Amino acid sequence: MRVLVQKFGGTSLATAERRSQVTAKISEAIREGFSPVVVVSAIGRTGDPYATDTFINMVKGISTELPQRELDLLISCGEVISGTVMVSTLKSLGFDAVLLTGGQAGIITNNNFGDARIIRVEPKKIVEHLKEGKVVVVTGFQGITEDGQVTTLGRGGSDTTASALGVALNAEAIDIYTDVEGIMTADPRIVEDARIIDVVTYNEICQLAHQGAKVIHPRAVEIAMQRNIPLRIKCAFSDAPGTLVTSLQADMSVGTDITGDRTITGIAHTPKVTQICIPTLNLPDILLANKQIFRGMALADISVDFISVQPEAILYTVRDDEADKAVKILENMGFNPSVVPSCAKVSIVGAGIHGVPGVMADMAEALSDAGVRILQSADSHTTIWVLVDQENMVKAVQALHKKFKLGA
Ligand code: ADP
Ligand code: MG
Predict the structure, then answer these.
(1) Which atom of ligand 1 is nearest to the CA of 12?
(2) Is 203:231 a contact under the CB 8 Å cutoff?
């Protein structure tokens, strides 16, 4: 059996016309000899009647006390609705189709409601249905705990569902259909001439996704990478080939060098972060302070980023919405933190950065010429991050995109 996982995002399912384009992609797969497993997200975006945010807002006004367990039950309905609509559409066109919830499809997660992690997939039911020649539609974004509780996987979780099923079913490929024609050199919403990346390594896309490129969930990339299953990001409304995400090794075997002379693959941005600075020069016990500060954040479940421990200060960033909590904890421990709210992290990513002189020079030059001050920076062998004021974020992304000649 040749399994193909096809995931359709919320916008692809919003109207009857779009759903007919989606079914065309499914029937094309069948014609090519594949057994398709179709993963669906909730229909629409914020404000639409069956979108995830609409469900959240529905109960938010009633009580702030609703446990995440119940909230997960509620928001898991969005995919049940879109899945049912999809099965009806397929049936109306003469396809034999069946809908499975995450739990019914065998997606077992831990019990971290709202942001659960898939620990195992038991695809027996899916395989049974596929063997009967059915199109199996699976609700994305959700699973079930060992003791039968419905969980959701966090934002972008349907991508993760698709990858997990792809690995469990040893699929030939995982196709992620969305509203853009592939992964681009920057978010097309802020860079007009952003270009589609044809082929790219799992590692680079993982970095881009972790740094804020919301087109694919980083966990989905990590899962596909484990078993080297090709991941393709495409548009349901066009025949463009999209972006192929693969490993460098796999591609070298067919004789192409996918990084070529490309130094920078893309630019990502994450808004809404706060920089925290704790002066340490006059502290009586700096070693104790280092320990206390990061343990304090960890105990409060605040994730920290952009950490820079220097002789005179400890710097790091937190999400804007966790900044007040972080500052209170620090003040209660006797520290005197200062904060810079509303910052953004802008990252340039490329497997080719490593060992290439002058990349940081170009980055600094582009930002200076655009009048953007760098508040902090860090680098790894594939990424250089800078922290800037959020009001400069778009300007920074655009300037870097131009400087590294990423445009069309
Ligand atoms: P879906 O509902 O299909 O999962 P998403 O909104 O999660 O869709 O992802 C698609 C969006 O990701 C695009 O509309 C685009 O604005 C945004 N995006 C951000 N960075 C990139 C990028 N580098 N390439 C393509 N799209 C990007
Ligand atoms: Mg998405």
Answers:
(1) 3
(2) no
SS3 41: coil
Confidence class of residue 259 from pLDDT cuts 50, 70 and 90? low
Site to substitute for ligand 1 among 214, 348, 401, most atoms within 8 A of C-beta: 214
**In terms of DSSP H, where are the helices of 14-76?**
16-31, 52-60, 68-75
The closest-lying atom of ligand 1 relative to the alpha carbon of residue 183 is 24
Token match 């009633």: residue? Answer: 62
Tokens of 89: 């559409």
Question: What does the radius of gyration of the chain's CA atoms come to, in whole angstroms?
Answer: 23
Which of 178, 193, 347 gets mutated to test ligand 1 (max ligand atoms within 8 A of its CB)? Answer: 178
Q: In what helix (H) or strand (E) does residue 214 lie, and over which residues does it extend? A: none
What does the pLDDT look like over 194-245, one tens digit per residue?
A: 999 999 999 999 999 999 999 999 999 999 999 999 999 999 999 999 999 9
The pLDDT assigned to 149 comes to 98
Q: Which atom of ligand 1 is nearest the CA belonging to 8?
A: 3
- H helix intervals, 169-308: 202-210, 218-226, 248-252, 286-299
Give residue 317 CA to ligand 2 midpoint distance, Å.
25
pLDDT value, residue 319: 96
Handedness of CA 302, 303, 308, 310 (dihedral sign): positive
Residue 249 has pLDDT above 70, yes or no: no
Tell which atom from ligand 1 comes closest to the C-alpha of 233.
25
Q: Which residue puts its alpha carbon closest to atom 6 of ligand 1?
A: 215
Residue nearest to atom 1 of ligand 1 (CA): 9
Residue ranges lining ligand 1, Cβ < 6 Å:
9-11, 41, 156, 178-180, 183-184, 186-189, 213-215, 266
pTM confidence score: 0.91
What is the DSSP-derived secondary structure letter of residue 12? G
